[in-house]
Amino acid sequence: MTDPLGQSQVLPYVFGLKKRGYEFHVISFEKMDRYQEHHRVIHELFKENDVHWHPQDYQLSGGIKTTLKQVRRMHKVAKYLHELHQFDIVHCRSYMPALTGLKMKRRYGIKFIFDMRGFWADERIDGKIWSLDSPIYKRIYNYFKRKETQFLLESDYSIIGTQNGYDEMHSWETIKGKHPKVKVIPCCANLDLFDPSKIQVSDQKALRSQLGIASDNFVLGYVGSIGTWYMLSEMLDYFKCLKADNPKALFLFVSGEKPAFIKDEAKKKGIDTASILVSSTLHSGVPLHLSLFDNAIFFIRPSYSKKAASPVKQGEIMAMGIPLICNSGVGDTDAIVLKYKAGKVINELNDESYRANFINKEMFDSQVIMDGAKAYFSLEEGLNQYEWIYKKVLE
Fold first, then answer.
1. Residue 29: beta bridge partners?
2. pTM of the prediction?
3. DSSP state of 231
4. How far is Cα 53 from Cα 35, in angstroms, rounded to an integer?
5. Crossing angle of helices 379-394/11-19, nearest 10°?
6. What is the pLDDT of residues 113-134, one digit of tens each?
7. CATH second-level architecture of 196-377?
8. How far apart are CA 20 and CA 391, in angstroms?
9. Alpha-carbon distance 20 to 335, whole Å?
10. CA-to-CA distance for 315 and 369, rounded, in angstroms?
11. Superfamily assignment of 4-189+379-394 in CATH?
């Protein structure tokens, strides 16, 4: 919950559903560095919203043995809490928690919701985190693909992030003709938080001054982490072309990544690092940072597993009325951009294509983009969908 993803894609749903009368106990595994930095703020949010939080220590090192130890810890904590509170539903986000969810359904008859979001096991292969050339990882991959089928077929409801992923999943031989209960819910955005009308001009000016952005600078923006899937090299190539066309252009990264890493990558491409800005903020500070963007960009590595990817940043960017540049072949992203006239989709990642796809705010209607976010990414609609599922499984 101390990670940006937890703050944008778990807390708003839990707190929103709490207001609709549902009681929650949240078990999460936290990276200790982020926990130490942010736990007071997050604890206060849980307290304000009267939701119970049971944070556990997430260990990055130690390999498979440590992972198994943490899975056992998850089972133990969930069992202990159930004995105290007698849960009606266990709602599991992604595959590792679903191991506990399925176990509790089988043992105690609790309703089990598998919030799969994407094809996690395939992401591990596509992202080269696991290799099928390794007998150990091949065995682990096959284990989770078997569990994936069990989660889908034995859950009382499953949730996936994209229509593309939904269609693909129903083509699998293990699923064909078995009709699991699955609903598509994209990664939604809190439109009350991501609302450009709530941004104060004085706050914008202060942040511009802090970051060294002049009034005549053109700001290309990126928000979120940079890791396995986000194509930093290609995004820097796009910026290099943009910078050649517009010397006043700056590239602002709103990210927890180390600034030195991003700037070193820019330097390798001959980009003046003075035009690369990196700022880190809690989720509540993201809208103000986004308000400085003239347009946003994200390139995600297309792969099989990304058919099911719903980028959190897309709804947040669109909610702020900011046009975006993205690549094709990732979940429903390109279809949404085109449908709601929210920017441009690049099919080929090369300099010629980049130069043909420079954009600015004047080319798009920000209200149309915001209306698209409201139609597709509204947190309120997401809450309606989740509550419908809760009521359905409790019938």
1. 56
2. 0.89
3. -
4. 13
5. 60
6. 999 988 999 999 998 899 999 9
7. 3-Layer(aba) Sandwich (3.40)
8. 12
9. 32
10. 10
11. Glycogen Phosphorylase B; (3.40.50.2000)
